[in-house]
Amino acid sequence: MNRKKQRIRLTSAELANLWTQYINDTMSICVIRYFLKTVKDKDTKDILKYSLNLAESHVSQIKTYYKQENYPIPVGFTKDDVNYDAPPLFSDTFVLVYMHIMTLHGLTGYAGAVGTSTREDQVDYFIQCNTDTMKLYKMIIKVMLDKGIITKPPTFHPDEKVDFVKEQRFLNGWFGGKRPLSAIELSGLYYNLQKNIVKIVLEIGFSQVVQSKQIRKYIQRGEKICDKQFNLLASILSESNLPYPQKWDSEVTKSTQSPFSDKLLLFHIVTLISAASGYYGAALAVSQRRDLALKYEKLIIDIMKYAEDGINIMIEQGWFEQPPLAADRNALAEKGAEE
Questions:
Q1: How many alpha carbons fall within 13 Å on the CB side of residue 33?
Q2: What is the pTM of this model?
Q3: Domains of the chain with bracketed CATH
Q4: What's the CA dihedral at 326, 330, 331, 333 to 10 degrees?
Q5: DSSP code for 90
Q6: Where is the chain membrane-spanning (predicted)?
Q7: Of 307, 62, 323, 76, whose CA–CA distance to 199 is shortest?
Q8: Does residue 228 register a pLDDT over 90?
Q9: Is residue 244 classed exposed, middle or buried when 0-12, 13-18 and 19+ CB atoms within 10 A define those classes?
Q10: What is the dihedral of CA 58, 262, 225, 227, to 10 degrees?
């Protein structure tokens, strides 16, 4: 007897991956379409067009998955969250730097989605997302190299031979006698600095155009936190006579007309800040100098409190879209008892 193959339901992890991607990509579509209206550089436009095509295809596919599973399609961000007539808020150069960092975020997210998916179509889908985004990343790096605006991590001179740690003081870092940074520690510091730079520039630009005084105050507070954290991480490299990434503060125009809704501006900052805690945590996990671990712990505490305050504002404004929740069995039991 032929039986119709039973459809495997999405797991909670797969549902979370799709929901998160939908919210982020609907925001990206608003941002990229606006940039396409303001950017003049042809190479950057080509990157934006490719990225927009990816985001739009993702949103379309996720809608299909949600309909198949009978889940309501998230709201995310729409044309009501963007003003295409607003003048440029950032230079073409910063738009390229922004796309570089946001693509790095995408690669991290897609790798995690592949690793938490089990249903065949979900694994295939996120592998394809990762493959497409790696192509985008390669495009961005090439253009940045051609234009001479990419800041590379420092290089090391080769050691004469392989060595092994012989003393516990390799882990020191509290008072004096600090060993040089390892390549692993330096990598974490450098890429966290690069991500911090983009947040600072966005906060400078967003604070110029946001309508709400409360949100403007919040974003300006974030700029001070991120700038302080940048200086702390940069000082660690300076102590080792190593360069740190270039800042792009001057790439913000004088525009005071907002291209985006306050909802989108706030969500963008809160999302990047929340993600930063994860990147700090990853760097902490591989830092074997005790002083670095302590610094990362302090950075994480500071930005987690800031991110929580941002989420509270979103809740107050009715902008915090609730992700899918597990069934509240106690509430259901009470409801059943009342009936």
A1: 20
A2: 0.91
A3: 10-150 (1.20.1260.10), 174-320 (1.20.1260.10)
A4: 120
A5: B
A6: 264-286
A7: 307
A8: yes
A9: buried
A10: 80
